[in-house]
Amino acid sequence: MERKKITIDGNEAAAYVAYRLSEVIAIYPITPSSPMGELSDAWASNKQKNIWGTVPNVVEMQSEGGAAGAVHGSLQAGALTTTFTASQGLFLMIPNMYKIAGELTPAVFHVSARSIAASALSIFGDHSDVMATRQTGFGLICSNSVQEVMDTALISHAATLESRIPFVHFFDGFRTSHEVMKMEALTDDDIRAMIDDKYVKEFKDRALKPENPFIRGTAQNPDVYFQGRETVNKFYDACPDIVQKAMDNFAKITGRQYKLFDYYGAPDAKRVIILMGSGAEAAQETVDYLLNKEEKVGVLKVRLYRPWSAKHFLKALPKTVEKIAVLDRTKEPGSLGEPLYLDVVSTLSEAAMNNELPFEKMPKVVGGRYGLSSKEFTPAMVKAVFDNLKQEQPKNHFTVGIYDDVTFTSLDFDENFVIEGNDVKRCLFFGLGADGTVGANKNSIKIIGEETDNYAQGYFVYDSKKSGSTTISHLRFGPKPIHSTYLVQEAQFVGCHQFNLLEKFDVLEKISEGGTFLLNSPYSKDEIWDKLPKKVQEQIVNKKLNFYVIDGYGVAQKTGMGSRVNTIMQTCFFAISGVLPKDEAIEQIKKSIKKTYGAKGDEIVRKNFDAVDQTLENLFKVEYSKVTSNYELPPIVSDKAPDYVKTTLAKMIEGKGDYVKVSEMPVDGTFPSGTTQWEKRNIALEVPAWDPDVCIQCGKCAMVCPHASIRIKAYDKKYLQDAPPTFKYMEAKGKDFPEGYAYTIQVAVEDCTGCELCYEVCPAKNKKETRLKALNMVPQIPIREQERKNWDFFLSLPEMDRRLINTGVIKSQQLQQPLFEFSGACSGCGETPYVKLVSQLFGDRTVVANATGCSSIYGGNLPTTPWSKNKEGRGPAWSNSLFEDNAEFGLGMRLSIDKQTEFAIELIVKLKNEIGAELVDSILNADQKDEAGIYEQRERVEQLKKKLETINSNEAKKLLEVADYFVKKTVWIIGGDGWAYDIGYGGLDHVLASGKNVNILVLDTEVYSNTGGQMSKSTAIGAVAKFAAGGKPTPKKDLAMMAMSYGNVYVAKVAMGANDLQTLKAFLEAEAYDGPSLIIAYSHCIAHGINMAKGMNAQKLAVESGHWPLFRYNPENLKEGKNPLKLDSKAPKIKLEDYYYNETRYKMLTRSHPEEAKKLLKLAQEEVTKKWKFYEQMAEMDYSNNKDEKVN
Amino acid sequence: MDLTTSYMGLKLKNPIVPSASPLSQKVDTVKQLEDAGASAIIVYSLFEEQINHESGELDHYLSYHAESYAEALNYFPEPEEFHLTPYQYLDHIANLKKAVNIPVIGSLNGVSTGGWIKYAQNIEQAGADALELNIYYIPADSQVNSNDIEKMYVDVVKEIKNKIKIPVAVKLSPFFTSMSNMAKKLDEAGADALVLFNRFYQPDFDLEKLEVIPNLVLSTNWEMRLPLRWIAILYGQIKANLALTSGVHSSEDVIKAVMAGADAVQIASELLLKGPKRVTELLKGVEDWMAEKEYESIEQMKGSMSQKAVAEPAAFERANYMKMLNSYKLHW
After folding, report:
1. Helices A602-617/A566-577 angle, 10° precision
2. Is it the case that residue B275 has pLDDT exceeding 50?
3. Potential cystine with A688: which of A47, A123, A775, B73 (Cβ 3.0-4.6 Å)?
4. How far apart are CA A975 and CA A856, in angstroms?
């Protein structure tokens, strides 16, 4: 049968089968598995049916634990059920996995295997998560490529029904889950043919039904539990043969034969590598190469890892094998070896002990680790492993792919060992996220994959910064199936879609001699040569490149494409790469444009067509002769940076992090604070320039700046002596500044992302020309050098003494130094201004517990991190534990600090005589309510420490260790709504109920932002989000109301864009309140589909419409007989739709489901009105009697 | 008494036609207007901007930040189909056609000869009985001269007339150097009617924020004088029918418009203020007046006060201006 060739990624391949074979799908988003759930949801919204003709019920849960519970329940009630997850998500499913397996329930969990969070989180791929489920009783079955993902998904669904063993079907996160590959799609008939309805019926017969009641899940005693556990053995014994039978059956249907252990290589191989996952493909490719060199090598791919079949394993290996290297893509510290290695060793040992070894003699086995967190696994590394086996005594417990200069586990490998042949066309593209490069490349792969006989593969490397993020696309095309599961090592074509990336990356490092280089450049073909850096010119000349330029942005401008050069660059690629005849390529591009954009209207299609047509007229080949440039690329980081930054972090910034040695990494995940300041990203095309003549010194610009790149200082004029000539200042105005001080607003133009929030929020207008404000956007490049000097000078000016700053007014408060700066958050981020405010107000005494999510990524993703410290060396101490446990994590910090403070008090009381009563009393009775109080206490503690050093007692030594705890410490628990409303809500609730003095900041974007816009319980009614494609039908959870119900929790709802002063007050009150505080902060977000420059305005509309009422609930007021609730915003004054339809998340519903949109808008408006009345009544309640009662 | 009138070949039971406005947003309201006696309905305008920008905007925000960051390759679910405003508009026309018996006139608002013009065909296919073309252009560019602008108008009309068979009315602004000449050109270009005049939303300033703010005010009665004059002047000079719009609030206004030469009288502000039933009152007022003055039909009075028909044609020209100035009395 002719099957359709499609070009999809691994996630889609898995979901393709799982969806067709499920009735219920319960999921929770987690990278890299999220797309599987999202696709299922999209198919369900489009009423696509499974093979039994019904649309699966797709449900998003509050956590993976919840998803697993729902899966378990659904299975018990007789619906075929699946889920998709990875990493920590899989961990949360483990308790239910024991249950599901223990009850012999057929099910398949599809897992895009990912690293686990140990000393650091990583979203990338390895088998650490899957390996942690070995003990649950689930079968583990692995796919190595996108085609295999689809095939094995079907095999596992078939096998689970017959064997009753549930399976985890896994494949490598990103490398396979996100690799786009041409493959053969299974038909519904194929899928039907593999599923025996007899087993489906048996499964359904075992379901919980009142018509056939029984109980399952009893509690058992020492007498029988053990025997009960042993009942399942025969099912596990039978399972491998059942899986093999399914594989054989699959081969009959499709012609693709899989084995539980697939051997590839010389039949008489002496050296064999055993591994599973995508690395097996690279190994196979290398084996092919070595076989041609007459080497006796082979690779054994493990497909069914659990239940482990020794019988099949021993049969699969060639009889001639002498040495075996077992590669594990996981790390088990403290074990003798990693799991697969131990399994192999045990199998061989058992066979040897039983004299059942099928080999001439016991092979020598070594184990090694590779590929953690998607570390590249290349043919050079495979070869290094084979070379190791050549040794008389091969190195055991080795690593490959890194340089371990500490325990010397690593194998050396030859980076120049590259086996990419000429039969494959390889291309590299450097672009920005915003320019659409990846989308265009995915499109090109589809065109080549689906319209030609070529095989095609695409893999995309993204940035860990969310603003100005760069992308690198790795594409391969060729007549044979592609097994290269690693980045392109040598490219015949390189496209650089952004001129300034020439400075950032070594774009031409991997281009082959005579290759083609396409550059998007603002300069013409005649000007371009002289604009290139010297190194680039050298590479072009030395490698004799065919060099083409296009002014992509010029064409985009002309054709109304704005900043998206995707179609234009794609057209260039096809025009000069020769992958397809030009005319045919153009036709295909147009066809795919129609397909991609058709639903969004004819105009967008027409614009793209125009862009294609105009591209060819603007594409030029550049003639060159010799190197003429003297322009050397600037150093990665400044020479002033600390050594660790210069030596180690700089490598990561440069994209050469693979060369960081083990000795350069911290042993426990601890990194220095404040390293973003050294990574000058220069991503803004335009930056704000300050006009002192217009400025009214309100401080709002600095307050809203998401990246802390606008700073304010007031300082003695004497410091101006050394000011650079273009440094600007004005007289500091008003009583909040000391007399005669100068005032400067300085922009860090190299760190600014150009978001324009400051320009938008600036209330001062130029009287001659009202479009001008006190801050105006100007091109960055012309002022870069000058402002770099000004910024350095600005930094050298003294910070204002914190004791002199009036934190109650913004203009003065904004003089506080931000200790959260230049994060990788999106340009115009709505969350970071709040985070920065915490760092300004309390940073020098704060410990932060940060939930996983956007804030942990922009707050803690390497190479450089934004939490910093002041000149005294104090600053926020930050940590991220997990997603679900953040409230508890923060509470733990509080308990720990309180305990140590208590201990310090106990000790100081004991040592009162030695220390001196006066100092002790003043320390114990210190008032630390304000900066002055804290300052004085710090002085006293210094005095105490000096004193303690003179006292020779154990208690004095102990007190010295904990003396800092006399100074007030503030705990901030920070996270998003996914954490606070959903996965972490149970813990958050418990912490609120604890009465402990913690401050909880919920950065509420009303959607899962970090994982790409899935609905949370904070999502408002009528909003479109993933898993709410038809608009969320239910209202947003009122977290504030729930917290207020405790009565002793400080609760505030704030929106900086609507009322910045109220925000400031709330933060101050929350911190001052000696008990749990909860601030829910409206955070506009790219996931809202808004113009981010107008983010603060969006906040204002949210408040004015009543969607986001502002209030503070302060239990302190009760003491004075006052109502604790104070409404800080007025009754709704605009219609909800005036807020809603300013944002794509709401507006798109009027385009996708117009009738539903009307209905939900009406409900939403009613909800807002109702809620407002409720709050109003609460705020009007008379509490004066309560006071009397208390007094009486 | 015969109130019928012929407008662009459409037989209307009377001259009162609710003009392009929110009045036509709901099928129910249009039904009420029909029941109240409206003789046709001009559907609110589909704007060139909506056609051109909505699609781009939707694409921009749905793909914004997509494929930039490994954990979030996109931020929105992508439905298989979108009901964009233009499509919703066409559906609305079709629904109106099903719901009412009076002629439904589509309205297209734009200025260039771009891709949006094909929506004229779409509106025809959706079942509209005629199309009103609202050419809305502020000639702010000092490099563009009046010939260019006039040509632009004529080209749009020609192109649309070439593409569709239903009659086309052109709604104009009064800002032409030679209104009569422009009317003639549009007449020659094939316009089946001219609708005089369009009202522009004039911007206002917010003195607190120092911002320009859009401002919509309903028409007042005196605004009718300008179209009244031009209809009176153009009546009989061109083949195209004439419709008066702006400032019609009373039965007397309707009568005046017809007497000036209007084949149809368009009303919006008055109906927005007082509701569909106001049409019945206006019609009754017209009928009562005609009965009292013994007029037999609308056709009889049509153009009876046009420049050609009045005793003093110069009253419509400059002399009138001088006379008015001289007659103005100081009030303090």
Report:
1. 40
2. yes
3. A775
4. 8
> What angle do helix axes A279-292 and A379-390 make, rounded to 10 degrees?
60
Q: How far apart are CA A1054 and CA A1083, in angstroms?
A: 9
Scanning A255-353, the segments in alpha helix (DSSP H) are: 279-292, 310-316, 339-353
In which order are the strands placed within the sheet that holds A491-496? A5-9, A180-184, A455-462, A470-478, A425-432, A491-496, A511-520, A546-550, A619-621
pLDDT in tens, A686-706: 999 999 999 999 999 999 999
Count of C-beta atoms within a 10 Å radius of residue A523: 16
Is A695 annotated in a binding site? The answer is yes
CB A1099 within 8 A of CB A1021: no
Q: Given an 8 Å threshold on Cβ–Cβ distance, is A1013 in contact with B74? A: yes
Catalytic residue selected from A114, A476, A564, A681: A114
Contact A433 B69 (CB under 8 A): yes
The CA distance from A687 to B79, in Å, is: 37
Task: Give me the helices (H) in chain B, please.
Answer: 27-36, 48-63, 85-99, 118-125, 146-163, 179-189, 225-234, 251-260, 269-274, 278-293, 298-301, 318-327
How far, in Å, CA of A427 to CA of A444, rounded? Answer: 11
User: Rounded to an integer, what distance in angstroms lies between the CA atom of residue A208 and that of residue A54?
Assistant: 21
User: Is residue A1002 marked as binding?
Assistant: no
Using an 8 Å CB-CB cutoff, list chain A residues near B51: 601, 603
B77 neighbourhood in chain A, CB within 8 Å = 38, 41-42, 45, 1024-1029
Residues A279, A280, A282: CA angle, nearest 5 degrees: 65
Would strands A81-85 and A108-113 be described as parallel, antiparallel, or unpaired?
Answer: parallel
Packed helices A146-163 and A233-254: angle between N→C axes, nearest 10 degrees: 130
Q: Tell whether A597 is in a known binding site.
A: no
- Helix then strand then coil, in percent of chain A rounded to 5, is 45, 15, 40
Residue at token pair 């420490």: A945
Backbone dihedral region for residue A622 (phi beyond 0: left; psi -120 to 50: alpha; all else: beta): beta
Q: What ipTM goes with this model?
A: 0.93
Helices (H), A679-730: 700-704
Question: B197 preceded by cis ω (within 30°)?
Answer: yes
Residue A1032: both structure tokens together: 């969320």
pLDDT in tens, A531-555: 999 999 999 999 999 999 999 999 9
Token output for B326: 């001289």
- Which residue among B62, B77, B80 sits closest to A1026, beta carbon to beta carbon? B77
Phi, psi of A141 (to 5 degrees): -135, 135
Domains and CATH numbers, chain B: 5-307 (3.20.20.70)
Q: Are A490 and A548 in contact (CB under 8 A)?
A: no
Confidence of residue B50 (pLDDT cuts 50, 70, 90): confident
Task: Give chain A's domains with CATH numbers.
Answer: 5-253 (3.40.50.970), 259-400 (3.40.50.920), 425-621 (3.40.920.10), 888-966 (no CATH), 1006-1189 (3.40.50.970)
Q: Is the peptide bond before A692 cis (omega within 30 degrees of 0)?
A: no
